[in-house]
Amino acid sequence: MKLLKTMVSAIALAAALMTPAMAEDPGPAAYSAALTGKKVVLVPLAMGFDLAQGWSAILKREVEAFGGSFETRDPNWSTEAGAQALTEAISSDPHPDVLVVMSPDLNSFAKILKKAQEAGIYVILIDNPANFPADAYVGSDWNKLGQLEAEAVIKGCGEGSSGKIGLVQGDQVNATSLYQYEGIMKVLAEHPEFSVVAKPDSNWDATTARNVTATMLQQNPDICGIIDFWDATAAGTSAAIRDAGLSDKVFLVTTGGGEKTADCATLEDGTYGAVVMTDLARESGDMVAMIKYLLQSGQPAGTASPYIYTLLKATTKADLAPDSCWDLKAMQAAAGN
Amino acid sequence: MAILRSFGWKSLNQERIVLAIAIGLFVMAALALPGFLTTGNLVAILRSVSVLGILALGMAVVVIGRGIDLSMVAVMAMSVAWYLQMLGNGVADGTAFALVLAAVIGVGLVNGFLVAYAEVPAIFVTLASGSFVFGFVRSQLISQDAVPVPRGHWVETLGRLRLASVPPEVFLFAGLAFLAFLFLRFSRWGRFVYYAGDNPQAARNIGIPVRPMLMLRYVISALAALVAGLLTAASLQTINTRMVNSTLLYDIVLVAVIGGIGLSGGKGGVRNVLYGAALIGILLNAMTIIDIPLLYQNLIKSTILLAAIIFDGVINPRDEQTAQQGDI
């Protein structure tokens, strides 16, 4: 009996001693309670371009890993379709918990997104800033991006060049175009030996970019550098430079999502002189971190509106590395679609 | 009035007004803008309207026959995007091209069939078929908005080709314009296009094969769209299907209509397309040289076009006969 008693008490003691060691880490339970079953909806300008497909692939993997559901809407570059997709998402039941939105301009979505926050949906603005206090803005600091482009073109033109620079802007409503322009002019103001000789808009269309650049080079054959506001239109700008036989004389700077065929291959073959690239993995990682944070924070939507800027870098052929770009095809293959 | 008439005011129809504006703009730009009247810039103007002009030729053939083809830009972008995507996926060039050509002719035939035999208005048929072509190709056949031309492919070579520093689309536009002129002016089927456009019932009564001819016209416009798409891809080394959302479609209709091809059919010809293209080309080039922002460019463009239409309306008022035709 005594032996039995001793054994029982020993076991009890052992059990008592074991308990603290067996105590669960409160993290996973809290994490899963806050995140499981949460719905995240991505509404980019369109699903058909490299960055959107990159964001979507990474967000899908992460959201599904924490037990949430992930959906995308494809407005296919139409502001109306985007507004409709957002309205529909807000009024759907159950409505999404987080909306990840790329805004077409500064103002169009402001009212709808405010409604989303009032309905308790966290709104994360990505890539294109808007006049709206989102729960976070994750993307580029476009003013800084413009500054980096201007510095790259000044370096590309070099000492003793004509100092004549051409800009191929996007349009006059999109924040990326407006802020990019401000940043460029800020740097150029500090370099009086450089001046902008023409600044047409491409309206984000490659053929228009080609036509306006052809005219620009016709009027100013001694231009030493051109900044195109997007790599998709820079295809047209570079065609005009090539047609004018000025590939060796005009230093073309642009900005893009850092996709392999769009940016690195074109830097490699000399089409672009420098590209200010978005670090897709880091930017998407920031979005994921914000989603996880907001869903656990317990704060009402619209509490704070921080800016999470992605680190930007102007890449030239000289500092191309194997990991400078990401590969859309490989990413899609890995995601199995 | 009699004096006015003897001065030929009545002969100042929209076509001549547009030509006059185009010449006026050209003279003003040549005098005021340094570098406007250089060979390089004139080639640039020609080039900037060549693809638009080829599309407008296809549209003109359809519009003269009292129709409209709103699926042209979708066919242009999506056929070439699918072609390039197949090449990228390793499909043999001949097979890929044959498939695309068959699909393009197929879209033209379906458009024509629905208009001719199902008697659905052309504006609805082609609007729907354009959306279908875009949606189907974009969702099922290609993976991205922009599809690059493979390195070393003949489309790339075509884009680098120069004859006396003039790019290929200018020659193609000139060649196709001449062909369209011969077809409309001198071929029997070409003349029938006017009869069918002017009065389809009467044309049918005198034994013209109105319906098969109508299908042929939509095939012609679809083929013009394919040529325009290939030239665009050749020049940019890529095709971006985003152009389906752009104002290109309206610009095509504009070039055809502003030059004086009436939407009610039976009127106009290749000359009108050339005048319309000249006006748009000179206008856009001059505004780019002056560095006018895009918003103002659109405003100026639309103002000039409105002015031309209003002026035409004032000096050539609509009468009983023209009003009966039923514009779109």
From TrEMBL, chain A:
Is tRNA processing given among the entry's keywords? no
Q: Choose one Gene Ontology CC annotation of this protein and give it.
A: cell envelope
Q: Which residues form the signal peptide?
A: 1-23
As one GO molecular function, the record gives: carbohydrate binding
Where does this protein reside within or beyond the cell?
Cell envelope
InterPro entries this protein is in? Peripla_BP_I, SBP_2_dom
On whether Signal is a keyword of this UniProt record, the answer is: yes
Which sequence ranges are marked TM in the entry?
Answer: none
Where is each Periplasmic binding protein domain found?
Answer: 53-298
| A Pfam family reported for this protein in Swiss-Prot or TrEMBL | Peripla_BP_4
Q: Quote the CDD domains the UniProt record gives.
A: PBP1_ABC_sugar_binding-like
Keyword list (alphabetical) reads:
Signal
> What does the similarity note say?
Belongs to the bacterial solute-binding protein 2 family.
Protein name (Swiss-Prot/TrEMBL): Binding protein component of sugar ABC transporter
**Species, as recorded:** Rhodobacter ferrooxidans
Taxonomy of origin reads: Bacteria, Pseudomonadati, Pseudomonadota, Alphaproteobacteria, Rhodobacterales
TrEMBL record, chain B:
Give the InterPro entries listed for this entry. Answer: ABC_transp_permease
The membrane-topology field of this record reads: Multi-pass membrane protein
Name one matching Pfam family.
Answer: BPD_transp_2
UniProt-recorded Gene Ontology molecular function terms: transmembrane transporter activity
- Domain of life, per the record? Bacteria
List cellular component terms (GO): plasma membrane
Keyword annotations for this protein, in alphabetical order, are: Cell inner membrane, Cell membrane, Membrane, Transmembrane, Transmembrane helix, Transport
Localisation per UniProt entry: Cell membrane
Report the transmembrane regions from the record. 17-37, 44-64, 70-88, 95-114, 120-137, 170-187, 215-236, 248-266, 272-296
Q: What is this protein called?
A: Inner-membrane translocator
